[in-house]
Hints:
It is built from ten helices and 18 strands. It is an alpha/beta fold.
Amino acid sequence: MSVRELVVLGTASQVPTRHRNHNGYLLRWDGQGILFDPGEGTQRQMLRAGVAAHDLDRICVTHFHGDHSLGLAGVIQRINLDQVPHPVTAHYPASGQHFFERLRYATAYRETVKLTESPVAADGPLAVTEAYTLDAYRLSHPVESYGYRITEPDGRRILPERLAAHGIKGPDVGRIQRDGVLDGVTLDEVSEVRRGQRFAFVMDTRLCDGVHALAEGADMLVIESTFLDEDVRLATDHGHLTAGQAAAVARDAGVRHLVLTHFSQRYGDPAEFERQARAAGFDGELSIAQDLMRVPVPKR
């Protein structure tokens, strides 16, 4: 049975709190696991959330500030310690190559797993698989930063009433799906396009074209909302978003499920982030991220 869900490992911004670990987000996509922004403490949060090193197929780092990347050293060493039986690919801004190398080889350990480095240098596709396409878009932050987007290929949804109208049943249903035509009836006549699911991950950034490109039509958008709206000047100065800005992006992009995260330690009440997101006009499904929560990707 396929599982598509977000496992939240940490939700703090620069300074962790008693209740918020540094960043860390695992996207389970059927049999694949994509780990985003492993901040300090991610390895322990994985243990608490029931996430194993064997679950990881890709690591995507948006940028090399510590709250988004200091956990890389521990995660990479754990992948090798547990002798993960499949290759793991790491994506990160190419300008931070020296940071990645320092974290990968921060201490001595035995390398047992093939870790492929795939730096990001421009907008566009990073990987195309049968299950999804992974794209990156440049964001606006004091250091080079990229957001990531997962897009499932479109499929087809069989319509039982149209099958019945053409007298197609039993094994013939499989035949028309496989061959595209049966006794003059085409697959298009008995089915409709089912748009593939779309997931977007947007961390530290001001409003920019990349934010909107990543969010467009997403079934789930995980996006930073470091500040509340009254601190918008701080947000802009430091390269971040407010709750209202993030929600407005989701509203305009037609996002179905919005997940706000990456909260400044200055705020104690997460309910205010929800209130401001709703005040911005977002009326879809909304989650205020908490450490160790699980959020299903909306089905199509």
